Amino acid sequence: MLSSRVLRLPRKPFVDLDYAKHMPAAYVEKVKRTVPRKTFGDRFGAPDIKMYYVHPDDYVPSHRRPWEDKQLSEHLHRADKYFSAQLSNKFMRFRYPKNERIADTEWTFFPGDLVQVMVGKDKGRQGLILTISRDTSEVIVDGLHTKLGEDMEGSDKLGVDKTLRWQLNGAGDEYIRVSTKSGYEIPIPSQAKVTYEYLQPENYIEVEGKDTPADLVLTRTYIPKVASFEQEIMEEIGIKETRTPKPTYWY
Amino acid sequence: MWRNLPTLLSSAVRTQKFPLATARLSTDANMQQFFDDEANFGKAELRPKYRPGRAWTADELRLKSNSDLHKLWYVCLKERNMLITMRKAHVSRARNMPNPERFDRVQESMDRIEEVVHERNDAVLRLETGESAAPRERTITSFAGFTYQKPAKEHYLPPENGQKEYEVPYLDDDAYMMQKLWTEKEYMKRRDQEDDVKRRAARTDDMERFKRGAPRVFNR
């Protein structure tokens, strides 16, 4: 019953739209250097002590991808500074990042959107969004630059769709992007689906000999059986085990 | 049958099931499996045509039979060996390895295979014996008074006197004092941390700009 209710929940496609969608989380943490340099564990029940390359409180996100050369060298430099401060027993002030990440349901900008800048020196100019940075709440428009959340007052006069919201569609099974002012649906541009691996999911080039074709991945070969993994493999290879193990003690 | 298996699997199976075919390959060809495609040599970033995609997700792996998972594990292992060889080659020539996230992609796949196998074993074991397939743990109390889960070890003989550790409801004097001081220290650390958060929130941009401290307020 619970699963059927979950299946009936409307889809939120915008939650998955991320350039780094398929990047392994462990790799991203590694290039951010917010991983422990050393963990002192096994402390008789007391929590582990972790020494970080760059403490998570010290990590300041940027509009650049963390694995890009320039950003990575910045992180390495910070890690060196942090470590040398630790070695010389000096106080090091962490740069606690100020802006908080905007919730997925609040965020309505995607790459490929035509936007008009409403404040700042580029006020009134229009352009397509090149990249968005969710971590820093930044939107990079081709040639122009703006930052969200900075003095948005006075932008009413320009008569442009200022705010969008996520709303259920007619069938009630999917969230769509709707202008608050005019009530029109503003479809998500195809450019929003771009990730590091592909420009469009259907245009992904499968690497011969490495990638498994999509249809084969989704072929079901599992037939449940009351046997453990090891038993089934032994049966397949033809290993017969007749000995019965003696009881052992776990302590 | 080969059609039903993903390509990586079918190539792996072919080498497994027909040892003659493997034997016919020269040693060079076998050694080649430890190296990347030559098209990838000396690249800063792999071209999309040669850049492997994302890791297997747990949901996809749940569709696959146990023998498929078994084969996929070794396919991943071979890929990981290849990557380690390439990394060694790059490091020895002081070069950057292209697309190092491939390590983590393979590792993610392998972790998820383990997860799915554990799920299946757990279901069978719970059904048959009522026990979990997870590694056994025991709740014990250390000499310092901390009560925690410790992985149990397997022994052939039953425990001798004092060999088996237990959870202790009442701590002795030393452990009690240790715990008392520990909680006090943790409380003070937490209090200082909360103060720091408040102080940081109260700082304005002007204070950063003019290098000024916050106004001093006594008897707040």
From TrEMBL, chain A:
Give the matching CDD domains: KOW_RPL26 (cd06089)
User: Which GO terms are recorded in the biological process aspect for this UniProt protein?
Assistant: translation
GO MF terms, alphabetically ordered: RNA binding; structural constituent of ribosome
Its domain of life reads Eukaryota
Q: Which InterPro entries match?
A: KOW, Rib_uL2_dom2, Ribosomal_uL24, Ribosomal_uL24_CS, Ribosomal_uL24_KOW, Translation_prot_SH3-like_sf
Keyword Secreted (UniProt): no
Q: Does the keyword Transmembrane apply?
A: no
SUPFAM superfamilies, per the entry: Translation proteins SH3-like domain (SSF50104)
Q: Which residues form the KOW domain?
A: 108-135
Q: Which UniProt keywords apply?
A: Ribonucleoprotein, Ribosomal protein
State the GO CC annotations.
Answer: ribonucleoprotein complex; ribosome
- What family classification does the UniProt entry report for this protein? Belongs to the universal ribosomal protein uL24 family.
Q: What is this protein called?
A: Large ribosomal subunit protein uL24m
Give the species this sequence originates from.
Caenorhabditis japonica
From TrEMBL, chain B:
Q: Where in the cell is it found?
A: Mitochondrion
Keyword Lipid biosynthesis part of the UniProt annotation: no
Among the GO molecular function terms of this UniProt record, one is: structural constituent of ribosome
Region Disordered: which residues? Answer: 189-220
Q: Which Gene3D superfamilies match?
A: 6.10.330.20
- Is the Signal keyword given for this protein? no
Which keywords does this chain's UniProt record carry? Mitochondrion, Ribonucleoprotein, Ribosomal protein
Q: Please name the InterPro entries in this protein's record.
A: MRP-L47_sf, Ribosomal_uL29_mit
Q: Where is the composition biased (Basic and acidic residues)?
A: 189-211
Q: For this chain's UniProt record, which GO biological process terms are given? A: mitochondrial translation
Gene Ontology CC terms, in alphabetical order: mitochondrial large ribosomal subunit
In the record, the note on similarity to other proteins reads:
Belongs to the universal ribosomal protein uL29 family.
**PANTHER family recorded:** LARGE RIBOSOMAL SUBUNIT PROTEIN UL29M, RIBOSOMAL PROTEIN L47, MITOCHONDRIAL-RELATED
Q: What is this protein called?
A: Large ribosomal subunit protein uL29m
Organism expressing this protein natively:
Caenorhabditis japonica
